[in-house]
Amino acid sequence: MTKRRMMGVLLLALGLPVTGAWAVQKDGKLYVKARNTRVLKSPLPTADVVAVLQPGQQVTWKGADPKNKQWHQVTEPGGKPGYVFQTNLSTKPPNMELVAKDGGTRAIDPAAFVSSGAAVKALSPGAEKYGNEKGGTSAKAVKQIKALEDLANKVTPEQIAEHVRQAGLFPVVAPNTTVGPQKVAAGKSTKGAK
């Protein structure tokens, strides 16, 4: 038994998680499992962003950083090297989202689901109609949820980034991060971006 396998068996026996890195060899493929996963230039949370990846995208694993094993060096789909936080990687692709339509269910690509806006919409038209027809507290809840959704749509990435900075939180997406074909930069219009 190899040293790596013995370590994996030991971690399992102790009840500790065995990460995806244990199951893949150097230059093997891993999958991104978290939305807006940042590939950074160095294994520091404040490093420049090389790319922003979405669930299901494959990266080539190059190994854990020798000084901080929580950061793993990868090559992103565009061929750029960088570092990703360990918990954002998986040996298996993430499950597809299930949607119900016309009485049945079907699997869709998570990136397509997210870009459709359905993932961030508080109420579907059917739920809104049902709540309003039911009346009373249900109708009141529909009205409150719609008001919150309208308020949330007015919050800009710059405002979120400023709040994160002031509160001393870990920045997940900076106001100048490229997401898809659009680039959201501080002080610029974000019309059409959500």
Strand content: 15-25%
Characterize the main sheet.
5 strands, antiparallel
Mean pLDDT: 75
Specify the CATH homologous superfamily of the domain at 26-96.
Answer: SH3 Domains
The CATH topology of the domain at 26-96 corresponds to: SH3 type barrels
Estimate the helix proportion, in percent: 25-40%
Separation, N- and C-terminal Cα atoms: 51 Å
CATH class of the domain at 26-96: Mainly Beta
Order of helices and strands: HEEEEEEEEEHHHHEE
Number of helices: 5
Q: What would you report as the Rg, rounded to the nearest angstrom? A: 21 Å
Structural classification: alpha+beta
Q: Count the E strands.
A: 11
Shape: elongated
Strand order of the largest sheet: 6-5-4-1-7
Can you offer a commentary on this structure?
By secondary structure, the protein is an alpha+beta fold. Among the domains are: 26-96, SH3 Domains (SH3 type barrels); 121-178, no CATH class. 29% of the residues lie in helices and 24% in strands. It has helices spanning 3-13, 110-115, 125-134, 136-153, 157-167, and strands spanning 29-32, 37-40, 49-53, 58-64, 71-75, 81-85, 89-90, 97-101, 104-108, 178-179, 182-183. The strands form four sheets. The protein has a five-stranded antiparallel β-sheet, with no helix packed on it. It has a two-stranded antiparallel sheet with strand order 2-3. Strands 8-9 form a two-stranded antiparallel sheet. The protein starts with a helix and ends in an 11-residue tail after the last strand. Residues 9-21 and 179-194 have low confidence and may be disordered.
